[in-house]
Amino acid sequence: MGAQQAQVRDRFAELYGAEPEGVWAAPGRVNLIGEHTDYNDGFVMPFALPHRVTAAVSRRTDGILRLHSADVDGDVVELRLDALAPQSDTHWTAYPAGVVWALREAGHEITGADIHLTSTVPTGAGLSSSAALEVVVALALDDLHGLGLPRRRLARLCQRAENVYVGAPTGIMDQTASACCEPGHALFLDTRDLSQRQIPFDLAAEGLRLLVVDTQVKHAHSGGEYGRRRAGCEKGAALLGVDALRDIAYADLDAALTRLGDEEEVVRLVRHVVTENHRVERVVSLLHAGETRAIGPVLTEGHASLRDDFRVSCPQLDLVVDTALETGALGARMTGGGFGGSAIVLTETTTVATLTKTIESAFTTAAFTPPRIFEAVPAAGAARVG
Ligand code: GLA
User: Fold this and answer.
1) Domain 3-198+380-384 -> CATH class
2) What's the mean pLDDT when you consider all of the chain?
3) 347, 209 Cβ separation under 8 angstroms
4) SS3 of residue 271 by DSSP
5) Are 11 and 69 in contact (CB under 8 A)?
6) What is the percentage of the chain residues whose pLDDT exceeds 90?
7) DSSP secondary-structure letter at 369?
8) Which atom of ligand 1 is nearest to the CA of 130?
9) Is residue 71 annotated as a catalytic residue, yes or no?
10) E strand or H helix that includes residue 178
11) Where are the domains of the chain?
């Protein structure tokens, strides 16, 4: 057992007066390519980060859910399962409680739990701290109750917790990434049927690195902007007579945009989603062909599309991308939902130190809060760890 697991167990025992039945962990993610495509039934390509949420958990039989987080000041929060109701909670506790609610709503008999959590996933950084929190709780309860739910089903239940209980209209990418990613691989996911392929992604072997630059600009997807983009995409699909924008082939994009006529905003949203799906497919082909360096410009095109067409970037994210490219990066783009959060930079290993310094000093010159920069290596998905 690792030192962190032992610490989580000890703290659980202090809080609840007995050893936990087990310890589970679920990671945050970065998305390599495929942004704002998941609620359009499209393609995404995330990989898991080594940063994770760890949960020590025991069952209860009295209909009570007790929650505690090492990362939030405060006492144990006690909730009655039969009182859990969608959008009744605006605190962090809504995520784990929402998972219990979603499991029960789906007919699984959860009779209560004691949960102690601790996280190394930065919050509000576009790295899926919420999905990691949901997935770790879902996996722990699935294991303890012997539910045997497939990972994709767990991801769907976690998404339902987030959409309905928390009230954030997000897609399925983050929960699936946390539940299904494998070390050394990026996950090529078709969000329509959750079919997936693990794509080997070992940058170090090719003398490359992927940096994550957390701009420290906090974002939240329960706010209106994310939902407005989603509604705009749904409007586009309806106007074009398809179930989802995924159904517009890249070859048919120009014709589709012509049909949308003067619906200027919808035109921009549709153009982003259709070209972004195509970019995911291009990245998959390039990686398959061993042309890893050539994905750089595709990532950068993705950023331009998110900035100009989808309009979810912000000055800090644009500064990371512009500075990285001027300093010799192979490609860079914002990752995650946007409106703040993180960017990724693909670079030669030899350029990492210069890039890091140059981005930091660009932030100082612009009088922005200093960014947090770290290297991302594809890590494992959710698992029992103790
Ligand atoms: C957030 C959401 C995801 C996805 C991304 C954008 O991370 O949780 O479902 O829509 O934004 O790609």
Assistant:
1) alpha beta
2) 97
3) yes
4) helix
5) no
6) 96
7) P
8) 8
9) no
10) helix 173-180
11) 3-198+380-384
pLDDT in tens, 41-97: 999 999 999 999 999 999 999 999 999 999 998 899 999 999 999 999 999 999 999
The CA 182 to ligand 1 mean position distance, Å, reads: 20
- The 8-class DSSP code of residue 146 comes to T
**Angle of helix 129-144 versus helix 151-160 axis, rounded to 10:** 120
Whether 1 shows a pLDDT value over 70: the answer reads no
- What is the per-residue pLDDT across 122-171, written as a single tens digit (0 to 9) for each? 999 999 999 999 999 999 999 999 999 999 999 999 999 999 999 999 99
Å from CA of 260 to ligand 1 middle: 25
108 CA → ligand 1 middle, Å: 27
Per-residue CA distances from 234 to 240, 302, 373 (Å): 10, 21, 35
The residue-averaged pLDDT of 311-322 equals 98
Alpha carbons 315 and 104: distance in angstroms, whole number: 43
Residues lining ligand 1, CB < 6 A? 35-36, 38-39, 170-171, 173-174, 221, 336-337
**Nearest residue (CA) to ligand 1, atom 2:** 170
Q: Whose CA is nearest to atom 3 of ligand 1?
A: 171
